[in-house]
Amino acid sequence: MHADAEGAAVVDRIRITEAAALLGVSDDTLRRWADAGRIAVDRTGGPATVDGAALAALASEIAAESPLARLLPAGGTSSARNRVTGIVTRVVRDTVMAQVELQAGPFRFVSLMSREAADDLRLEPGVVATASVKATTVVIEHADARKDAR
């Protein structure tokens, strides 16, 4: 939701293709879910769209159902709450440090850690691992702002 020029709340409408990409599924899958009643699609007045808030709820539901959710450490074992599971794609070690790259869907995470930690965790390409992100600053941009800058 965002405000229009007069300050009134406007619900974000997201096109099917963009919504499917945000969920990591095909357009056809999202349409099948809509036909099954899992999410409402507005097909009036232009391209088919979904409500942004409904899409957010569905994204949370899908994340909870994901087989990857079982791979996450149990809650309470760390104060870091932003966790993502993926596969290690690259590890570069020197005598003191290691650079570890993790691919989680379309997202790439790079972590610098001690070589000892990487060795203890046996991090190598092909290992399934979880990145825990704890930061004092996380920047979130509105997607429309990026489009306007082009």
From TrEMBL:
Residues 77-142 form the Mop domain. The keyword Repeat does not apply. InterPro entries: HTH_17, Mo/tungstate-bd_C_term_dom, Mop_domain, SinI_DNA-bd, Transp-assoc_OB_typ1. Pfam families: HTH_17, TOBE. It comes from the Bacteria. One of its GO terms (molecular function) is DNA binding. Coiled coil: none annotated. Keywords: Molybdenum. One of its GO terms (biological process) is molybdate ion transport. This is Helix-turn-helix domain-containing protein. It comes from Amnibacterium setariae. The lineage of its organism: Bacteria, Bacillati, Actinomycetota, Actinomycetes, Micrococcales.
